[in-house]
Design a protein that fits this description.
InterPro entries: GH, Glyco_hydro_79
Number of domains: 2
CATH topology of the largest domain: Immunoglobulin-like
Distance between the termini: 40 Å
Strand content: 15-25%
CATH architecture of the largest domain: Sandwich
CATH class of the largest domain: Mainly Beta
Largest sheet: 10 strands, antiparallel
Protein name: Heparanase 2 (inactive)
Number of strands: 17
Shape: globular
Order of helices and strands: HEHEHHEHHEHEHEEEEEEEEEEEE
CATH superfamily of the largest domain: Golgi alpha-mannosidase II
GO biological process, one term: extracellular matrix organization
Pfam family, one: Glyco_hydro_79n
Radius of gyration: 22 Å
GO cellular component, one term: membrane
Length: 357
């Protein structure tokens, strides 16, 4: 109970919503889920009026490898139905969101598990894996959970450095262009070297990158046309592999920008600067630049970053610094320094696709 209190209070104070994954490995002799412990936890949470969403199990496709015991898709589907029935018995959670399953990489055993689960639980869960999900429930929202830049906790001085951001930002761009609704980063603290803050809660480079993404990037993905490439416009654009450009409507929650603004985010993996000239309706608009570069002598391996030349750090234990853009005059060519990541908000475009939610 004390551990749950601390976890919930942390999420609540941070303005976050907690999704709690219940233990799916407590099994009865017939391999059905033993929900007695979960029911105790649900009742305790309800007594505290905790606003929590729920999930059952973690990577059930790996149970045989990890503990020599397996749960097939149809059984897991029945377990989820049982969990939904428990939630409906408790007034606080009768309408709580139920997520899952968190099933790891889309290999053959994962697809088999999903195909067994979907007939039982398709109408009750938020699932992922587009092909299987759309076969059973077209339009069901798809989440990716436990996403990090590398597996197995990553590598010190790499997975927690500026260099890791190239893969993280590109992952966000690709997943958004493929229609993934939510990406849950793994992890915030104290798991290998993929975490977003260090042991003293000082933000690491991927934290600042994620913060800018959340503040500037809206859910609507825009197609990009690059002059000179004989390809149809599409969401997200890879140019000669090393220059990657994505475009979205600017976040509706950012009150510094009016509806209709758009945000580009650009990854330059070249060892030379690149120039991009905006065309069409974007040509005569003021642009706000948010350029992230490593800070300090460690270069790409640095755990510190600078925004438009100013190092980023917490003001105090509870206060983030102001993320100030650098205004660029209308018509100016965007100059992308080598080996950098950047965001560019094109103001007041009045893009039709971005006027409404």
């Amino acid at each position: 109970a004390r551990s749950l209190d601390k976890l919930y209070n942390f999420a609540d104070c941070s303005g976050l919503h907690l999704i709690f994954a219940l233990n799916a490995l407590r099994r009865n002799p017939n391999n059905s889920w033993n929900s007695s412990n979960a029911l105790s936890l649900l009742k305790y949470s309800a007594s505290k009026k905790y606003n929590i969403s729920w999930e059952l199990g973690n990577e059930p496709n790996n149970y045989r490898t990890l503990i020599g015991r397996s749960v097939n898709g149809s059984q897991l589907g029945k377990d989820y139905i049982q969990l939904r029935s428990l939630l409906q018995l408790i007034r606080t959670y009768s309408r709580a969101n139920l997520y899952g399953p968190n099933i790891g990489r889309p290999r053959k055993n994962v697809i088999t598990l999903l195909e067994g689960l979907m007939p039982f639980a398709a109408g009750r869960l938020a699932l992922w894996l587009p092909d299987v999900v759309n076969t059973y429930t077209p339009g069901k929202k798809i989440w990716l959970e436990g996403v990090g830049t590398t597996s197995a906790g990553g590598m010190n001085n790499l997975s927690d450095s500026y260099a890791a951001g190239f893969l993280w930002l590109n992952t966000l761009g690709l997943l958004a262009s493929q229609g993934i609704d939510v990406v849950v980063r793994h992890s915030f603290l104290d798991h290998g070297h993929n975490h977003l803050v260090d042991q003293n809660f000082n933000p690491l480079p991927d934290y600042w990158l994620s913060l800018l993404y959340k503040r500037l990037i809206g859910p609507k993905v825009l197609a990009i046309h690059v002059a000179g490439l004989q390809r149809k416009p599409r969401p997200g654009r890879v140019i000669r592999d090393k220059l990657r450009i994505y475009a979205h409507c600017t976040s509706y929650h950012n009150h510094n920008y009016v509806r209709g603004s758009i945000t580009l985010y650009i990854i330059n993996l070249h060892r030379s600067r690149k120039k991009i000239k905006l065309a069409g309706t974007l040509r005569d608009k003021i642009v706000h630049q948010y350029l992230l570069q490593p800070y300090g002598k460690d270069g790409l391996h640095s755990k510190l970053v600078q925004l438009n030349g100013q190092p980023l750090a917490m003001v105090d234990d509870g206060t983030l610094p102001e993320l100030k853009p650098r205004p660029l005059r209308a018509g100016r060519t965007l100059v992308i320094p080598p080996l950098t990541m950047s965001f560019y908000v094109v103001k007041n475009v009045n893009a039709l696709a971005c006027r409404y939610r």
